[in-house]
Amino acid sequence: MLEVRGLIKQFGGVSAVNNLDLSVHEGDLAGLIGPNGAGKTTFFNLVTGFLRPTKGKMTFEGWDITGNKPHSVAKRGIIRTFQATSLFPDFTVLQNIIAACYLKPKVGFWEEALHIPSSKKKKEHILNRALEITQFLGLDEVKDISAQSLPHGLKRILGIAIALAAEPKLLLLDEPLSGMNAEEVAEVVALIKKMWQRGTTILLIEHNMRAAMSLCQRIVVLNFGRKIAEGTPEEISRNKDVIQAYLGASGHVT
Amino acid sequence: MNRWAKPLRVSGYSTGVIMLFLIPLFIKGPYTLHILILIGINIILASSLRLIHTSGQFSLGHGGMMLIGAYTSTLLAMKLGLSSWAALVLAGFAAAGLAFLVGFPFMRLKGIYFAMITLFLAAIIILNAEQWRGLTNGSSGITNIPRPDPIVIPGLLNMNFASKPDFYYFILVLTLATLVILYAIEHSRIGLTWLSIRQNDSLAESIGVNTTALKILGFSIGCFFAGIAGAFYSQYMSVINPSTFGFGLAIYVVAYMMVGGVRRFSGPILGAFLLTLLPELAAGLERYQPFVFVGILMLIIFFLPSGLIDLPKYLKRLFTRRSIHA
């Protein structure tokens, strides 16, 4: 589905991503882990077009998406969430999701400006889809609350809801569990599993090792912009290089 | 209650519009009509500036765009002998076209930087109008601009634009048409997308919105109406001069928009109405007009950041808070 070959991104003399090869297959629930500064978020930014790669090639479902603008990558079906909470603060929860739903079905401008019946039908369709998403992610109780007044955990879930409303084929989640308490973590882990079971391919960055290990079938480990390991959670937890990257060169646990 | 809300609103609006059409029957004084005509022009300017603002971009170039409209219309009518109506529409497209062209580089900038570059653009436009004497007659301006071509429907309508009421009807129809179009755009999918861009443009981009293209579209549509307003102004005044469209005008338009309130569609309408009328009420104090203006603007910014349109809400809150303390 997503094929990345020889991807390089240099900031000045520093290589944030260094000659990276990575594939995501349809139906994957894959994790991208690594110490701080390993280049994980930079990789997301490169794939989604928020940064231009220095070198390398990326294709999605056969389309070359190297150096494309973020909106055209999104239209191909790659939707990302952000590490920092990112939503439309002045809208209500439901409006946030509707705004994202609106981008997909083509409601003709004139149809709508002139209030032609078929646009009403499409509007209803969008509203129903948005309501469905709020229900699916457990946001229906807060759907009429302004987004900026939500508690942190729900803000993060709304971020995922917005991404989901844009109908992703491949969903890139950037630390979906950051800043959450144990209860919220369990809830979001369950949600991610549910989205995956409904057929969305997911690649996620996560620092919560236990959650990442329990969620993902396949894990890629980055360190200093290079891929140092790839495999099932068990393989990764036994991998020498990974242990070294996380615990330091000596490998002693104190 | 809901069942009657819509019919009530519709009948309210139609009564208002009918009353606006009847005004010239009761007000004969050309001076009052002149003020009303200026209010119309200012409503078009302020409301179209707000349209640009819905996508999060703040333009200080509306005066320059109005100049483009005024000169395009005038030159097309005087040098090429075009019908004034065609010239009016083309004036809008000239301003929109310029906005579209500069939109690509300009939309890389946000906030205050976008405001600055639009201000520079307006300055360049005015300098060009002053220096390109062969075309524009320089800073002495163009005089004897022809009136709009007469509209004659035998037995029904005979407008030759020799009198103020004819111009009043012209600007009334123009303003209402502008407002209807702006309202429809704002309540369409494009309007919703602009609002989402204003709140968080990288999130909008990440879910597939071509934010650059949409911002350019908003800027072009807003400038289209500034161009139309300029064309009307030139036909109405029959004299134009580059200095009319300078920095001062851009600031005034911003003031109409901010004082009325940017968040609501009716905000700029109220702002343009009050701030055009107010200095006229204090005639004779003309020299102090800028001070009054700045004073009002600062009071609004400090005490009513969402604009005069929210004054009732603000007062209500103020009084309920008082009663709690008492």
Number of helices of chain A: 10
What's the helix count of chain B? Answer: 14
The largest sheet of chain A is: 6 strands, mixed
Trace the largest sheet of chain B across and list its strands: 1-2
Q: Just name the CATH architecture of chain B.
A: Orthogonal Bundle
Cα Rg of chain A? 19 Å
CATH topology value of the largest domain in chain A: Rossmann fold
Highest-level CATH class of chain B: Mainly Alpha
Biggest sheet of chain B: strands, sense, closure? 2 strands, antiparallel
Biggest interface, and residues per chain? A-B, 32 and 21 residues
Question: Given the C-alpha coordinates, what overall shape of chain A results?
Answer: globular
Regions of chain A with pLDDT < 50 over 5+ consecutive residues? Answer: none
Which key features would you list for this structure?
heterodimer; A: 254 residues; alpha/beta; Rossmann fold; 2 domains; four-stranded antiparallel beta sheet; 10 helices; 10 strands; globular; B: 326 residues; mainly alpha; ABC transporter involved in vitamin B12 uptake, BtuC; two-stranded antiparallel sheet
